[in-house]
Design brief:
InterPro entries: GLR_AS, Glutaredoxin, Grx-like_ET, Thioredoxin-like_sf
Organism: Fusibacter paucivorans
Strand order of the largest sheet: 2-1-3-4
CATH superfamily of the largest domain: Glutaredoxin
Number of helices: 3
Number of strands: 8
Largest sheet: 4 strands, mixed
CATH architecture of the largest domain: 3-Layer(aba) Sandwich
Distance between the termini: 22 Å
CATH topology of the largest domain: Glutaredoxin
Strand content: 25-35%
Protein name: Glutaredoxin family protein
Order of helices and strands: EHEHEEHEEEE
C-alpha cells in the first residue's frame, strides 16, 4: 500500500488542517517538518517543491492542500469496524470484501468499488 509523506512547517495553517484530516480519516503518514529538519528541507528542494504542505504519495507529488487528490491516488481506504470502531486499511478496487477486524475479530462486508 502506498505511503504518505507530508512536508510541513511550523507556521503553516494548512499543514495543521491536513494533519488533522489525515489523522481523523485514519490515514497513516510520515511528517517531515522543514522548519526543524534541514535534511527534510533539502529533500523538498531536490524535488523542486517550494511550498508546504507538500505530499509524496507513492511516486506522485502533490503541492498544497488537495485532500481529494490524495484520497484518489491512494490504493486503499480506511474502514471502521462496526463493533469496536477500530480502523483497518482495505485495498481499493477489489469489489466486495469480507474484512476481519484485527482487534475484535468481527467480520463485515466492504464494497471497495465506488459507485
Amino acid at each position: 500500500m502506498k505511503e504518505i509523506i507530508m512536508y510541513t512547517s511550523e507556521t503553516c495553517p494548512h499543514c495543521k488542517t491536513a494533519k488533522d484530516y489525515l489523522k481523523n480519516s485514519g490515514f497513516k503518514y510520515t511528517e517531515k517538518n522543514v522548519s526543524r529538519d534541514p535534511m527534510a528541507r533539502q529533500e523538498l528542494m531536490n524535488l523542486k517543491i517550494m511550498g508546504v504542505p507538500a505530499f509524496i504519495v507513492g511516486s506522485e507529488s502533490i503541492v498544497g492542500l488537495d485532500l481529494k487528490r490524495i484520497e484518489h491516488i491512494l490504493d486503499y481506504t480506511v474502514e471502521t469496524c462496526p463493533t469496536c470502531q477500530h480502523r483497518s486499511r482495505v485495498p481499493k478496487g477489489k469489489g466486495k470484501l469480507r474484512v476481519t477486524c484485527s482487534k475484535c475479530q468481527t467480520q463485515y462486508l466492504v464494497n471497495t468499488v465506488k459507485m
